[in-house]
Specification:
Two copies of one chain form a homodimer.
Chain A: E1 2-6, H1 12-25, H2 36-44, E2 51-57, E3 60-72, E4 76-86, H3 95-109, E5 114-120, H4 124-132, E6 136-138, E7 141-147, H5 148-155, E8 160-161
Parallel strand pairs in A: 4-5
Antiparallel strand pairs in A: 1-2, 2-3, 3-4
Helix pairs in contact in A: 1-2
Chain lengths: 162, 162
């Protein structure tokens, strides 16, 4: 029995452990710098940065999906799925698909024209799965990222008029 | 003289034309389905989906940057730069860099650990420029996207408990 429910503040420790499990799966276990306090503040305050769904199988937490609104200047309000993860011992039961269905339902409810997420190019089973449920891969886009000191160095000489 | 300023509702027609000019540059001129009314409602209502900066050179609009908050479960609140564009006749004067500096300043102001954006893999001049100012390319991530009817089909069988 698979059950998808909206996360509550009582799920923060669970979400924190799932975030870490996903990072380990993505081969970057040392990249998680977030704290439980920050996850709580950012997801359950007056202006939440994200929404989270928890999947349970027979009453046991099995995975999660975390998403937030984004914007397309071609199509308008959209959703970005930041994290989708099912614990290895719970795979093969349709839990990932049930989570994606729930995120798609959230997108429909908000009138979003697009739902998007990122996948590692070596994760062919995931790519195959996503394509089987109607997603397409945008092969020619690459992600650029700037962090910490590089952002500050670039910002230092900025002048903006309100 | 380059001048970066925050966009206002009076800039909607300009923003609309810049969005179209960027889509043409990205070789997808037919992909823009947004209207000026929607851009106005989504960017300047009580809960704006995006923020926009306009670049002017000697008083003439030359480009724009459009961004919004996102969330990293590894690092917390971040910014995504959705659109960055300088009209071809205004290139080579540092306008793109001035816009990026202003977006970086917005990221610093909000305490964002990350600033990210996407680039087309054939746009080597842009990639070179971004790397020269401290950005790195995440070569192993690919974007998955689902739109319209595919989202609805996937959502149809969803069951979520609040």
């Amino acid at each position: 029995m698979i059950h998808i429910r909206t996360a509550t503040p009582a799920d923060i420790s669970l979400m924190y452990s799932l975030v870490h499990a996903l990072a380990k799966y993505e081969r970057e276990p040392e990249s998680v710098h977030i704290t439980e306090e920050q996850l709580l503040r950012d997801g359950f305050g007056p202006n939440p940065y994200y929404e989270c769904l928890i999947a349970e199988k027979d009453g046991t937490p099995a995975g999660f999906a975390l998403y937030f609104p984004i914007y397309s200047t071609w199509q308008g309000p959209s959703l970005h799925l930041e994290d989708l993860f099912v614990q290895p011992e719970f795979r093969g039961h349709g839990i990932g698909k049930a989570l994606l269905q729930a995120v798609a339902a959230a997108a429909v409810k908000r009138g979003c024209a697009r739902l998007q997420w990122d996948v590692l190019d070596w994760n062919q089973p995931a790519i195959d799965f996503y394509q089987s449920i109607g997603a397409t891969m945008l092969g020619d886009w690459r992600r650029m990222r700037m962090t910490g000191d590089a952002i500050k160095a670039l910002a230092a000489s900025s002048e903006v008029t309100a």
